[in-house]
Amino acid sequence: MIQKVIIALSLLFGSQLAMAQLEPYQEGVHYFKIGQIPADTGSETVEVTELFSYGCSHCNTFEPYLESWNESKPENVNFNRIAVAFGRKAWEMMARAYITAEMLGIEDESHIAMMDAIWKDRKQFRTVDELADFYTQFGIEKSAFLANYQSFAADSQLRKSQRDVQLFGITGTPSVVVNRKYRVTSSKNVGDFNTMLDVVDFLVAKETAAP
Fold first, then answer.
1. What confidence score (pLDDT) does residue 191 get?
2. Which end of the chain has fewer CB atoms within 10 angstroms, the N or the C?
3. 106-154 tens-digit pLDDT
4. Distance between CA atoms of 128 and 146, rounded to whole angstroms?
5. Rounded (to 5) percent helix, strand, coil in the chain
6. Cα 99 to Cα 51: distance, rounded to the nearest angstrom
7. Annotation: CATH topology of 27-209
8. Predicted TM-score of the model (pTM)
9. Cα separation of 183 and 169, whole Å?
10. Would you call 166 helix, strand, or coil by DSSP?
11. Among 55, 57, 59, which Cα is nearest to 81's?
12. Where are the domains of the chain?
């Protein structure tokens, strides 16, 4: 009886090892498990989060790849962004600007425009007034932008988002987190943005198939 149990366990371990070897991407090599309890996003929904900064040139380069992926992502994927600050005042100002755009419902239309303003037009935003002027082109009153930017709700959301940055173990941008469980970033084993998004797709499929 004991011998049969040992054989069964050996077969199970062998099959699991074979399956792991067949997977194109490996934990600890191409992606990393986040040591936090994942959010309850629903059994059919997979949350994909981009961690970015408007001050990051690599994020600007990554954006067209991500936009293309976003247009063809599976229907069960809920995509969102977190603007990181990393304790930098200039980055924090831009992170708060993105949060304000979210609060006003213009983040989708203003996001690429902001990237282009900074990296194509070489626009430098030094004050909140300059930011407010920029966002008026999306049908928002300057006073409304300033009120939301300076609100308690924006303060709370900024603190929450930066806590998530720390919980996710984000040390560089762009990074992508899948279901608050896995972190993907460019590295020697993930050599380009296409591969990075392939890893994201692999993890989305893994989470979709999970019981």
1. 87
2. C
3. 999 999 999 999 999 999 999 999 999 999 999 999 999 999 999 999 9
4. 8
5. 55, 10, 30
6. 13
7. Glutaredoxin (3.40.30)
8. 0.86
9. 8
10. helix
11. 59
12. 27-209
